Fold:
Amino acid sequence: VQLVESGGGLVQPGGSLRLSCAASGVTFSSYTMNWYRQAPGKERELVASISRTGGATDYAASVKGRFTISRDNAKNTVYLQMNSVKPEDTAQYSCNVYILGRGAWGQGTQVTVSS
Structure:
């Protein structure tokens, strides 16, 4: 399984960013996909999840109403649209899939929210 994130960068508070995660080596449409983040000195946090078909999503309270997770099963890609970002959203963002109880992770993409 290979997961490759992209789309991170520096964004001003209140701005928007869209992260992408391209998957290969896995039957993408068979699995729930997740976005996690980890800031320096903090524990890794589950940010958002999306079901196999995209019909169900779940969000951390800290991002609900600002972030949107989506997926394109034809492209084997999951997205995280980040709106109204805050400095506390600064972190390394990684996509994840659990297969038979084992987690697969991408290398992550850094998001920095700063003026």
